[in-house]
Design a protein that fits this description.
Distance between the termini: 21 Å
Strand content: 25-35%
Bound molecules: nickel (II) ion
Number of helices: 4
CATH topology: Tetrahydropterin Synthase, Chain A
Low-confidence stretches: none
Mean pLDDT: 95
Helix content: 25-40%
CATH superfamily: 6-pyruvoyl tetrahydropterin synthase/QueD
Number of strands: 5
CATH architecture: 2-Layer Sandwich
Radius of gyration: 17 Å
CATH class: Alpha Beta
Structural class: alpha+beta
Number of domains: 1
Length: 142
């Protein structure tokens, strides 16, 4: 039987959603308040889950202290209190939407977590808006 263990983390960051190929009007229409040229912030909440078998020796699926350290070092340190558009290389040519931030977080975590473990990542941008990449449900990402 497999068990899923999870860790929650938070960070805050500023962004602006904008497509240079669109008119100012279209950008405003599509992105609304998130198109503000002076940027604005969000408090992001991240849930990282790892599904796998319990190790007989340790009793762990994954050492949650180790998972905490991976999240702190690779995600929180990288995004927290940053302007995503100006300071994060991936967003020089990519819109820092909830979906794209989630994808970058997933890619960074995937490199750090054993292939034998199934990873899922949920990111909340507001209390009500969130996105998920879940290897259990999405064969495209595996
Ligand atoms: Ni926004």
């Amino acid at each position: 039987m497999k068990v899923k263990v999870s860790r929650k983390a938070t960070f805050n960051a500023a962004h602006r959603l904008h497509n240079n190929n669109w008119s100012e009007e279209k950008n405003k229409l599509i992105f609304g308040k998130c198109n503000n040229p002076n940027f604005h912030g969000h408090n992001y909440t991240l849930f990282v889950s790892v599904l796998g078998f319990i190790c007989e020796e340790s009793g762990y699926v994954i050492d949650l202290n180790k998972l905490k350290k991976i999240i702190d070092d690779k995600i929180i340190e990288y995004f927290d209190h940053k302007n995503l558009n100006l300071e994060i290389p991936e967003f020089q040519s990519l819109n820092p939407t909830l979906e794209n931030i989630l994808k970058i977080i997933y890619d960074k975590l995937r490199k750090e977590i054993s292939k034998e473990l199934t990873l899922s990542v949920i990111l909340y941008e507001t209390e009500n808006n969130f996105a998920e990449i879940n290897e259990e449900k999405n064969s495209e990402v595996v």
